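To: structure desk
From: M.T.
Subject: fold request, one chain
Message: Could you run this one when you get a chance? Sequence is below, nothing fancy, just the single chain.
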Amino acid sequence: GFEAAIAAGAKEVAIFASASESFSKSNINCSIEESLSRYREVASAARRLSVPIRG
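Reply: Done. Structure tokens follow.
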């Protein structure tokens, strides 16, 4: 999703994590630990491209 957003002209990235395992599983179909790993990858890519991150 990050690459597609940038290609579409996104100027910033918002990253939010779930507060509970059950919400994380039902909302994004992964554990909090898995989502944090994904978020780290997105944040790293955003920093490489100097894209502001919030969240």
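Reply (cont.): Residues 2-54 form one domain. Let me know if you need anything else for the meeting.
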